[in-house]
Amino acid sequence: MTETLIDLIRHGEPVGGRRYRGHGVDDLLSEKGWSQMWHAVGEYNQWQHIITSPLQRCQAFACALGERYGIDVSVEPRFKEVGFGEWEGLSHDEVKIGRASEYQAFLNNPVNARPKGAEPLDDFVQRVNSAYEAAIERYSGHHILIVAHAGVMRALVAKTIQAPTSGLYRIKISNGGIARIRHAGSGAVLELLNGKLSA
């Protein structure tokens, strides 16, 4: 079987600092966010295709990277971030302090204690996995880059290591952090998490 190599990069820091951004908040990357992403990839350009979330904090960098190296970019709506419902746009402190009991319940049980109006976690994982499986099938034997969000990367890391959905928020994904998943005859292996490709 031919190997398929998937790199994933989380968007850098958006304008507005740390806050809950699901797919309802579409902030642009800050200057720091751009530099985090360029620093993570360095001069690396071995991908044959780039797939991006439709949200600006991912798509703007994906298009700039594709343009720089002449790599085709496609947008995959199923790679947008999980919907956070009422928490969308709130800072971490507003949730941690202002909604302390909700926040604690969410930490203890992220599958069943969702913020009001949030996308069900199992639905989110299913949509991300369906997009990922389609990409692996389409780009079998290739090396591709997926530009996405912490939630999307958590879902794909959990799928790779066969961790339960309830453990998703125990996986730290840094801004500009790169993960690498190698698909070979023996199945998928997570080779890198929160790494950089630059020397």
From TrEMBL:
SMART domains: PGAM. GO terms for cellular component: cytoplasm. It holds the Pfam family His_Phos_1. GO terms for molecular function: phosphatase activity. InterPro entries: His_Pase_superF_clade-1, His_PPase_superfam, PGM_Phosphatase. Coiled coil: none annotated. This is Probable phosphoglycerate mutase. It comes from Nitrosomonas ureae.
